[in-house]
Amino acid sequence: MITTQKLSPIDDETLEEIGFTWHTDSDGSKYVSDELVEVTQEEAEAYYEAANTLYDMYVEAAEYVISNDLFFDLGIPFNLIESIKKSWENDVHWHIYSRFDLAGGIDGQDIKLIEFNADTPTALFETALLQWAILKSNDMDEERQFNNVYEAVTNNFKRLVTLFDDTDKFEEFYDGWKILFSSVEGNDEEEATTKLLQQMATDAGFVTKFEFLQNVRFDEDGIYDSDDINYEYWFKLYPWEDIAVDEPELATTLTNIIQNQKAIILNPAYTLLFQSKGMMAILCELFPDSPYLLKTSFEPLQGLKQVEKPVFGREGANTKIIEANGSISIQTDGPYANHKKIYQEYVEFPEDVHGKKYQAGVFFAYEACGLSFRKGGDILDNMSKFVGHVIL
To answer: For residue 88, what are the domain limits?
Structure first.
């Protein structure tokens, strides 16, 4: 059972002052819950261990996919395969941040992987800043969280230069390299998240600039802002799979840029392997005894209650819950109906006294670094609520 603490929410005006403008959902309800999930120190440590172990498993599985040319199995667009291979080969293509979605972990329930948001994970702003601000505004000790996301991501930017060396050596190795940050114009959440990441990189010591995606120029010699300044790094809050399908010419250009070492793109192209939910079927083949994995396959699971998901779906769209007898009990619409599907064993999310279900999100930046929750129904869609936590 999920236990929560009631608190006084931060008012909308204050939220907007700190850049959080997406505080109210389309139905008029508040996106941020006025409660905190109570977590024990032992539960927080278990989430930390689970995310670290799962990331290592994903790295091993990615090597297996590349070595055995299993890109089609994961639904990877053909025009990004070379970019994936090239970015995987060289450590300078550093994975900046990601988020594991997990069931269980509370009140003795086993932690189970639901999916891995490796490329463009949401809730970074909420997890890194907002839940800390909620504790502070309620006169609670802000240290009572599993949450060092800001510091961890900042240090991961330093690792673009130091790699596996001590991040304290950043100034010794740094040679003035610049990072251009981009999101699509018109999306407040993505813009605020991208600018938060920009601030982290600035704090790390990089020269940075923000430019809306449509104003960035690409050619065989690199990536340029609207003032025609060339950048060594480009961070885009724009999914790799969308680039492949919606911007095929850009996908080709970026492949050439990566191949010719004209710029490094963040998150790297290989994170598309992690992003594909098909990877969970590969994980089950490689790690059949892992306590963190639900049985997952590219074909329907016989005799099991299961969830059908598109390999590149978002926000619970085009998802079905299928009963053991084959009947569909719940399904959602969306734009991913034609995507390749995977079938994952069903697991119950922890519930509160009102029957609301909770999914844990654990951010990863070199190591697990922050916990938060989403609250909703059996399928967590874009109307689910963000819930912070407090360690007892």
So the answer is: 4-19+29-275+351-391
